[in-house]
Amino acid sequence: MTNVMINGRPVGERQPVFVVAEIGINHNGQLETAKRLIDAAVHAGADAVKFQKRTPALCVPPDQKHIMKQTPWGYISYLEYRERVEFGLEEYREIDSYCRQNGIPWFASCWDIPSLDFIESFDPPCYKIPSALLTDGNLLVEIEKRGRPRILGTGMSTLNQIASAVGSLGTDNLILMHSTSTYPCAPEELNLNMIPTLKELFPCPVGYSGHEVGLPTTVAAVALGACLVERHITLDRSLWGSDQAASVEPGGFERLVKYIRVVEKALGDGVKKVYDSEIPVMRRLRRVSSIEST
């Protein structure tokens, strides 16, 4: 299995876990909030931050565009709400500059082809394909044409649908992300054992995109072989927004990264050996020496 290079870093088997802090739309359309979330991700030791980019007129289904919704901007249509939380060229130029200043790469989930073209102009290190678009063949073809590493979400998808998407994208430069698309997701529906299952079925690295409350299950995903971990980050889980409750606050994200790094070290290389630290204990406690020299 070949590693995938993201921003000059190999991601895959026996490589450090690549940790993505998903800002998504948790900035609620506020650039200063986005910067604070970038700061929190950098402080926590995340390897990258991720946003979401949509063209609301294309992405919002016609039957939902005029549904009224109570929001921080008042009682407005769902389409207007989606437009309010979208950043444009000026904001993304500022985000790009701010991330460069802080030494952290950024990329985005692109929900439509114009958004893909928009993000492409920033020379991203990779693309995330949201689980919701795993069956969008036209978008998959356009992303494959860009030739950049792809991270494919697999929530709310069957194995046949995943296989079809992988067939469109190819396995080179592809990372599959096990996920359950419920926000927040109950532990009994996380199905973390799908991580080794996906590794057996597809010849590409496998990661984990979590939407649960808490940290232990995300760390367990690393123990099961996830090479890339993505969790939403928020300043406060009680803030307004659909993703906030399934997100991790700055202090929690810092702990998550630390726990992941400890587990990485603890997993080792799978080769049995006698450590130097064990020798004094062996000499003190073992009564019969082995006839084997090694």
How would you describe this protein?
The chain is α/β, with parallel strands linked by helices and 294 residues long. It has a single domain, classed as TIM Barrel, CATH 3.20.20. Helices cover 37% and strands 18% of the residues. An 8-stranded parallel sheet has the order 7-4-3-12-11-10-9-8. A hairpin with a 2-residue loop joins strand 5 and strand 6.
Helix proportion range: 25-40%
Question: Going by CATH, what is the homologous superfamily?
Answer: Aldolase class I
Residue stretches low in confidence (pLDDT < 50, at least 5 long) are: none
User: What is the CATH topology classification name?
Assistant: TIM Barrel
Number of domains: 1
Output the helix-strand order: EEEHEHEEHHEHEHEHEHEHEHH
Number of strands: 12
What structural class results from the helix and strand content?
Answer: alpha/beta
Strand order of the largest sheet: 7-4-3-12-11-10-9-8
What's the short story on this structure?
The chain has 294 residues and is an alpha/beta fold. The chain is built from eleven helices and twelve strands. It has one domain: Alpha-Beta Barrel (TIM Barrel).
